[in-house]
Amino acid sequence: MRVRFWGVRGTIPCASSSYLRYGGNTSCVTIACKDRLLIFDAGSGIRPLGPWVQSQGFLAADLFLSHVHWDHIQGLPFFKPLYQADFSLAVWAGNLQAQGLTIQEALAEQMSEPFFPIAIDRFAADIIFRDFMAGQTIDLGDGIVLRTAPLNHPQGATGYRVDYDGVSVCYVTDTEHRPGKLDPEILTLIHGANLVIYDSTYTDQEFFRYAGWGHSTWQQGVRLCQAAEVEQLAIFHHDPDHDDNVMDRIAEEAHDMWPDAFVAKEGQQLTL
Ligand SMILES: [Zn+2]
Ligand SMILES: [Zn+2]
User: Fold this and answer.
1) Which of 168, 242, 256, 265 could covalently link to 193 via disulfide, CB atoms 3.0 to 4.6 Å apart?
2) How far does residue 165's CA lie from ligand 2's centre (Å)?
3) d(CA 163, CA 7)
4) If you measure from the C-alpha of residue 86 to the centroid of ligand 2, how many angstroms do you get, rounded to a whole number?
5) Triad 47, 6, 117: Cα angle to 5°
6) CA of 195 to the centre of ligand 1 (A)
């Protein structure tokens, strides 16, 4: 499995010389399993992914949305393969059914006037919309199994686990933990995984100022991964107020707490 980080930021993209080393694009991660391409979230990081997908000759992909807050969908209209008639994309979301919405309706709304000039039906690609209930297990074929779990976030979100060829990678963002507790849904989802990408927007010290905002901390990521016997933690969904210097400090502290934790950087690739 090849994992690549195209956008590691949460909330809003940031661009200045203070964000060059860790990156300023919002959430987008790919997991390639042989010739299948799985995309997690469509933050602004999906824009640079577009030309890469075209250069690699992919004509299909699956996009799994954690939820539809701006920082997870804002790049979608700028994903170039969608303007290509021979491309097909399956778009999956697990948190909307419970709100009486479909993913097609939600994305069509994002791309409607007066918010955006190009309507969703202008995409030339074949788009298949797939709503499910977070908690379901989905067989993606080709030996890829996707497990999902509901996350604690305003309007809900979905955590994912991909199992392929004896390797497991989890994508768990956005979620707020309860202090002193380990979320049992997350523990079950990530148990024994090789890599967990986790909502680490805040530090434990900052967390109490942001109760109810729907995010977690890198320290909580370490606690969850240690309890669930996970091999590696990727600290992810960085706060826009955390510039490169702050992220350097977090990387050092995280390494001291658990050497298997690292701060995800835009452009970083891992082969598992
Ligand atoms: Zn977010
Ligand atoms: Zn969110």
Assistant:
1) 168
2) 31
3) 22
4) 32
5) 20
6) 20
**Residue 249: which pLDDT band, with cuts at 50, 70 and 90?**
very high
Amino acid identity at 167: V
Neighbours of 180 (CB within 10 A): 6
Q: What is the pLDDT of residue 27?
A: 98
The answer to whether the predicted template modeling score (pTM) of the entire model surpasses 0.85 is yes
Instruction: For residue 7, report the distance from its CA to the centre of ligand 1, in Å.
Output: 11
Q: Nearest Cα to 265, choosing from 63, 40, 19, 32?
A: 19
Q: Would the CA dihedral through 81, 75, 213, 154 be positive or negative?
A: negative
- Nearest bound ligand to the CA of residue 11: 1
State the CATH class of domain 2-271.
alpha beta
> Ligand 1 centroid to 85 CA: how many Å?
30
Domain residue spans of the chain: 2-271
ω before 114 within 30° of 0 (cis)?
Answer: yes
pLDDT of residue 7: 98
Please, are residues 40 and 6 in contact by the beta-carbon 8 Å criterion? no
